[in-house]
Amino acid sequence: MQMLLNGQWVERRQVIEVCDPQDGSLVDTVPLASRDDMRAAIAAAEEGFLRAREMPTHERMRVLNDAAATIEDEHEAFARTIAREGIKTIREARKEVTRCIETLRVSAEEARRLSGETVPFDQMPGSENRVGYFRREPIGIIGAITPFNDPLNLVAHKVGPALAGGNAIIVKPDSKTPLSALKLGRAIHDAGLPPGVLQVITGQGSEVGDTLVVDPRIRMLSFTGGLDTGLKIMSKVGLKKVGMELGSNSPVIVMSDADLQHAVEANVSGAFWAAGQNCLHVQRLLVHDAVYDDFCEGFVSKTEGYRVGDKLDEGSDMGPLIDEQAALRVEALVQQALEDGATLLTGGERWGTFYAPTVLAGLPEHTPLAQEEVYGPVTILYRFQKLDEAIERANDVEYGLQAAVFTNDLNTAFHVADRLHCGGVMVNDSTDYRIDAMPFGGVKGSGLGREGVHFALQEMTEPKLICFNLR
Ligand code: NAP
Using a 6 Å cutoff on CB, does residue 232 contact ligand 1? Predict the structure, then answer.
């Protein structure tokens, strides 16, 4: 596929090969953009921004809604692209396409709600004759850098609010999964966006991504990816707004009064969705002693029923990791945990890029898996007696994206929700629960700022005050 630079679909002699992670087969190629290409995109975006900010709200809404309609018409083709280039099964990919359509439609709706307030200036003696208001203005050119795991909807979460707010945006998608972002770019471009408003530049993060990060003409850098890359970006981003959506090792607390069957089903899905390559992945399950054995039996048995295989097979529940290096990393983390004294309840095998759904128990505190994000299909069971112990353990990591509690007691639910240090707490859903209109983001190493269309739109616009001195 070609990339979208200044309203044109362009090729480059050097390309990135996009390969299916399950068998290494070539899916397509995309241009390997240079730093000069990215600088050209930024220059085009300066013009694009002037056009974007002049677009009336109804036109921004029309473009977003038309793009959503195109994606709806081509739903299956989008799903197959996600499933071929990335790690999702076709059933998982279809859900992502449906959510992307929702993200664009919610963005269109939020465009119409972007408003300001009047300011009572006469609260200050001497300001009796002033009247005024503030409204929200676009911030300029937004640089968006996105990861491989949700190659369509995570891009829509940046592009939708950026366009709703009247900004220009340049997307640098993950090099392993750029095709979905390019297809999204085509749907939006074909809806009639002026040149330079949305560009999708494919190339290496350390090259073209870095150019976006350091360029002072970029007024906001919106990044979703790993903590290490996030820290690198923070060290050189300069004076611009930053949104950081990073990883986690999400905790779930299961109380003795919980509906155990529901808790098992919700958490198996949360643990192995996208083969665990999901920032909301259920990594740490803290289960009350009174129900631990029953929960453990149900969880392991349901995990063993999971079908791992060909992503395009309708019967597959789980696909591969993004590459062999990622699978080897997960294997090494599990191996280290076992050597450090953990018990393997099921799984623990790798073949090529696939890693079996794996459940561990008895994990010692000092093993890396107890603190790091596994980013693979591995979940750890912990037994607790006192709720405060579970809350302390849940909080005792450098991440805090979403957490969950399963209980039928409202007092417990409020107690736990108040004490978990994270961006969102789910009661009777796994940490993997999300809709596109809710505030979404983390604390500590999980990030800075919030996405979720309304909240991203606030981050991508800034208040401008207008004050009249009536004389
Ligand atoms: P990654 O290695 O950090 O890559 C993410 C993006 O950053 C890619 O587009 C990559 O480009 C680019 N990049 C790499 N180095 C860069 C640099 N020096 N400067 C600028 N850009 C650079 O992450 P990943 O492996 O794709 O994703 C996994 C992580 O994302 C996990 O930790 C996961 O939890 C997190 N995540 C968070 C959320 C959330 O909403 N909180 C959602 C999904 C995923 P190349 O591909 O070209 O290297």
Answer: yes
Q: In sequence order, what are the beta bridge partners of 378? A: 358
Whether the pTM exceeds 0.90: the reply is: yes
Reported as a pLDDT band with limits 50, 70 and 90, residue 471 is confident
In whole angstroms, give the CA distance from residue 143 to residue 302: 42
Distance 269 CA to ligand 1 centre (A): 23
The residues that are catalytic are 245, 279
- Between CA 67 and CA 86 the distance in angstroms is 22
pLDDT computed for residue 68 by the predictor: 98
β-pairing, 399-400 vs 443-444, is: antiparallel
From ligand 1's centre to the CA of 207, what distance in Å? 14
Report whether 436 contacts 452 (CB < 8 A).
Answer: yes
Judge if the beta carbon of residue 32 lies within 6 A of ligand 1.
no
Contact 282, 274 (CB under 8 A): no
Distance CA 387, CA 398 (A): 20
Please, which residues have CB within 8 angstroms of residue 204's CB and are 6 or more apart in sequence? 32, 175
Under DSSP, is residue 131 helix (H, G, I), strand (E, B) or coil?
strand
